[in-house]
Amino acid sequence: MARIPATLNLDRIIEVARALTSLDLHRSDAFDLRFYPPRDADVEATYNYFIAMVAIDHRTNIGDRQFTRRIGDEIFTGSDLLWRLGMEMFNRDSSFFSPANLRRLDPTVVRDWLVGDYGPVWDYGVRAYLLRDVGSHVFRNYGTTIRLFHVSSIEELIDRLSMMAGYEDPVRKKAYLLIKFLVLRGLLKIKPQEMKLPIDNHLTRIAYRLGIVRLEDWVLELMRRDMHLSRELDIELRLAVRDAWDAVIRVSKLDPIAIDDFLWRLGRTICIRDKPQCDKCPLRGLCSAYARGSFINEHNHYLTYYY
Questions:
Q1: Domain contains 177
Q2: Closest CA relative to residue 140, chosen from 179, 93, 104, 168
Q3: Do residues 264 and 257 touch, judged by C-beta distance below 8 A?
Q4: If we measure between CA atoms, which residue out of 124, 134, 125 comes closest to residue 101?
Q5: Same-domain pairing of 213 and 248
Q6: Does 234 share its domain with 281?
Q7: Both 144 and 201 in a single domain?
Q8: Which of 55, 61, 52, 75 is nearest to 202 (CA)?
């Protein structure tokens, strides 16, 4: 019999749901011109931009290699820099993100775009492959990106997206991130119950620390030994985390997009990996890790473009 790696803590899920209802949660700005096209941008170009950028929106920092750069008066790091560079390209030539162009994309072009004196993105070759795959699949099967989104249900859309390497993750992190962006932009309409959270390192780490997901002892031992978990185990754990946050959403009846934006900001700025800023955390009063004084990080599974 397969060993279950994690279970949901229903009591803690209810506590977290209640705590979130007391906070002022809000959606992020998907029209921030530093990262996203303007409101009056061509609709087709906007679809092209988001499906391409989300396909390559996975970890930019591995180990001590930092993907960071000062642009103007701001310092951009990680995914912020990735999207900032995306908009620099969009502003120069929005047709760069068209399926016709992406399907013939030369990896050296991606290298020149994403690698520089600010520190290279660690896998520009992989991101070039993902972009080419998106372009080839959309061009061959739909002709235009907009036609890919002519679906009767979110399930059909996710099935279509999963045929591309950048969206094949069984936990659907990038698929739900793309859906979220398009909803925020007013380009896609869904029912609240259709939206699941795009599970990444931040949401996983917060779930473990709050205690809404209980890890079995053998998984904790692998994590204590800093073992690189298999893809199969990584998927099982992230599915458990997704189910736990889905339960929080159902209990709280809050906007899933607002919850995701809150958790993502919390994970990037407060509930960080090695030195969490607990004094700034609005959830510390019900956090299992804070109560114990022992802070588990997300499980170790680095070499993936799933998230």
A1: no
A2: 104
A3: no
A4: 134
A5: yes
A6: yes
A7: no
A8: 61
Q: Is residue 119 part of a domain?
A: yes
Rounded to an integer, what distance in angstroms lies between the CA atom of residue 79 and that of residue 53?
Answer: 10
In sequence order, which residues have a C-beta less than 8 Å from that of residue 227 and are 6 or more positions away?
300
Q: Residue 41: what residue type?
A: A
CA distances from 185 to 98, 174, 295 (A): 19, 16, 36
- The letter for the amino acid at 293 is G
Over its C-alpha atoms, the chain yields an Rg (Å, rounded) of 19
Residues 128 and 203 in one domain: no
Instruction: Specify the pairing of strand 6-8 against strand 68-71.
Output: unpaired
CB atoms within 10 A of CB 285: 10
**Same-domain check for residues 205 and 119:** no
Indicate the pTM of the whole model: 0.95
Do 215 and 275 reside in the same domain of the chain?
Answer: yes
| Structural domain containing residue 118 | 43-150
Helix (H, G, I), strand (E, B) or coil at 213: strand
pLDDT tens string, the chain, 307 residues long: the values are 568 899 999 999 999 999 999 999 999 999 999 999 999 999 999 999 999 999 999 998 776 777 888 898 999 999 999 999 999 999 999 999 999 999 999 999 999 999 865 556 778 999 999 999 999 999 999 999 999 999 999 999 999 999 999 999 999 999 999 999 999 999 999 998 899 999 999 999 999 999 999 999 999 999 999 899 999 999 999 999 999 999 999 999 999 999 999 999 999 999 999 899 999 999 999 999 999 999 999 998 878 999 9
Give how many domains the chain has, as a whole number.
Answer: 2
In whole angstroms, give the CA distance from residue 215 to residue 260.
Answer: 22
